[in-house]
Structure formats: C-alpha cells, structure tokens
Amino acid sequence: MADPVKNLAWDDFRLIKAVADVRNLPAAAALLRVNHSTVFRRLGQIEEALGAKLFERHRAGYALTPTGDEMVALAERFDTDISAFARKVAGREPSPAGELNVTTSDALLAHLLTPIFAGFRQRCQDVRLNVIVSDQELNLSRRDADVAIRATNNPAETLVGRRLATIAWAVYGRASDYPQPKTAEWEGLEGRAWVGFGDGAASLGAARYVHERVPPERIGYKVNTVLGLASAIERGLGIGPLPCFVGDAWPTLVRLAPPDPAIASDLWLLTHPDLRHAPRVRVVLDFLAAEIAKRRRFIEGSSLQAVATA
Predict the structure, then answer these.
(1) Residues 281, 124: contact at Cβ < 8 Å?
(2) With contact defined as beta carbons under 8 Å apart, do 172 and 240 qualify?
(3) What pLDDT is recorded for position 305?
(4) Distance CA 174, CA 239 (A)
(5) Looking at residue 1, what is its pLDDT?
(6) How far apart are CA 206 and CA 155, in angstroms?
(7) Residues in the chain with pLDDT < 70?
C-alpha cells in the first residue's frame, strides 16, 4: 500500500499550521496569500490522502483533531529547522549585502531612527532595509525580523544584543495651556484632565503608572500608541506621559514634571545569536549603536536638542 505521507509537501504542512493558528479558512488564506477556495480545496485533498480528519468544524472555528495536532507539531519542527538553517547560511555571507528586516515601534522610527537609517543607506547602499513597524515582539528565531530595536526592560533570553540607553519619560501638556510651566511632582498633577494608554499598551510602565495614580474619571481619552498620545496632548485633550525624546521634539508640548525613573525603560538593539556575525547584520548593529550613542542625552531626557539635529 502506498504511503500517503509521501504525497505531502512542505506547503501542505504550512497550510495546516496556518489554519490551526487562525482557526478559519479566510484568515489562513490571507496568511498564505492564496485564495480561500484554494485553502478549502487543498485541505480536503490532504485529509483525503491521509484518510483522516485534521480539523473538527465548529461555530467558533476549526479545532484540531489528534491527527491534526501531530501534523502541526511536525510542521513546527520543520519551521524551526528551516529557520535555523536560513540563519546559519545568512551568517556565512562574505560581505554586507542584501535585504535586512528591522523591526521597531512607530515612535522610535519617527523621532529617532529615520535619520539614522538615512545615514546608513548613504554609507552602505548594498544593504537594503525593510523596516517593520510593530509594537508586538516579532519572532527573530523564525526570521520575522533580523534586527529589533526595542524599548524594554526584559529582552527575550533567546536574543543577544546591547543596551544602548535609558528612555526617560515625563508628563507633558500643551504649551499654549502652560505658557510658563513649572515642573511638579506627579502627585501635583492628578487633578488635571488626562489622556492615557488603552488596553493594547497596558504592558507599558507609563500605562500602569497612570492607572495606579490617576482617578479613572480624570482619564477622558485613551489610545494605544505613543504618537497617538502625543497628538492627543497637542490637541488639548489632557496631559499625559511621553518618552522625553518624543515630547521634547514637539515644539507645541512642554514638560510638566521631571522625568520619573519609575517608568523609564531601556533601549535595546537585538538580534538572534546565529545572525550576530553575519556581515549585513553586523554592519547595521555597529552603525546603529554608534549613532544612537550620539543621541543618548536626548533619549535620556537631559538634553532638549531638536530631533533634526540629533
């Protein structure tokens, strides 16, 4: 009897894993960049070839059967092995060239990194940068990104890198509302109207700090990004916490309190251990570290230099 598994290809395992991850066919099709009908047809063919159901269909979505669980586990092992091979090959490249995926947040990109990336491209045109803006930690083991520039106090233990600076945070208000600001302690500002971070940014130290100290009825507006919060403060919706390198770069905003070490976060430059010696990764890491070091006082809130001169 022919072995049905021999007729399976890697793409079949990818398809089953995608359906398992999102639990419905349209979303799996979007992940795989194919048509919904293609996923439906191929899933039926795979199940027919195996002679076993891989999913139970429920109103809540597609749930794995025991056989489906085994196939997804095998797909994950394949994915890990292929990603490890790709990282090792990337580490053996002879010179810095090719595309490099860099992930960071919108605030870091807008107020710190874009001029640095422009300088890098002028110096090293053989390395093409693909910047992925995301507040979620992408999986560097799977090569979702090659380099991560993150504000975090707890970088993943599976990554290697260096701490570049401490990101200072302070309370800011609209300059037109506070023409002669006098910095106060946080406690002296509790009675003002506030803007804060929504649930999507609840892990930020500043979000927890405001939640613990400001009465909820004083927080009339929430948003889940730093740039969204800065824009809300500028529009007069309330006062709120911002990284100093963001707040100090907006001429329409002023500090209302000194930076608070309790909500500071570290700025990290991270990569996967298998990639740290790859020439294109190494040249980007070294350039970023040197350029960010020049802006360290600005990041740490001790200098009000304009971001354009950073």
Answers:
(1) no
(2) yes
(3) 43
(4) 7
(5) 43
(6) 18
(7) 1-7, 82-96, 135-143, 183-188, 202-203, 303-310
DSSP lists the bridge partners of residue 223 as: 197
- Residue 226 tokens, joined: 């730093």
Domain covering 4-90, topology: Arc Repressor Mutant, subunit A (1.10.10)
User: What span, in angstroms and rounded, lies between the C-alpha atoms of 292 and 299?
Assistant: 9
Cα–Cα distance between 132 and 110 in angstroms, integer? 13
Predicted local confidence at residue 205, as pLDDT: 84
Q: Is the pTM of this model over 0.90?
A: no
How many Cβ atoms sit within 10 Å of the Cβ of residue 287? 17
Q: What is the pLDDT of residue 117?
A: 96
Instruction: Supply the DSSP string of 150-214, one letter for each residue.
Output: EE-SS--TT-EEEEEEEE-EEEEEETTT-SS-----GGGGTTS-EEEE-GGGTTSHHHHHHHHHS
Check whether domain 169-263 has CATH 3.20.20.60, yes or no: no
Same fold: 98-166+265-309 with 169-263:
yes
CATH superfamily of 98-166+265-309: Periplasmic binding protein-like II (3.40.190.10)
- Cβ atoms within 10 A of the Cβ of 257, count? 21
Residues 159-182: tens digit of each pLDDT: 899 999 999 999 999 999 888 777
Place of tokens 């560097």: 140
How much is the pLDDT for 30? 86
Q: What is the DSSP letter of 262?
A: G
- Exposed/middle/buried for residue 137 (C-beta within 10 Å: 0-12, 13-18, 19+): middle
DSSP 216: G
- For helices 279-294 and 114-123, angle between their N-to-C axes, nearest 10 degrees: 130
Contact criterion met (CB below 8 Å) for 75 and 16: yes
DSSP 56: E
How far out from the chain centre does Cα 142 lie? 15
Residue ranges of domains in the chain: 4-90, 98-166+265-309, 169-263
The token duo for 35 is 């048509």
Q: Are the CB atoms for 44 and 19 separated by under 8 Å?
A: no
Instruction: Kindly give, in sequence order, each residue whose CB lies less than 8 Å from that of residue 5, ignoring residues fewer than 6 positions away.
Output: 50
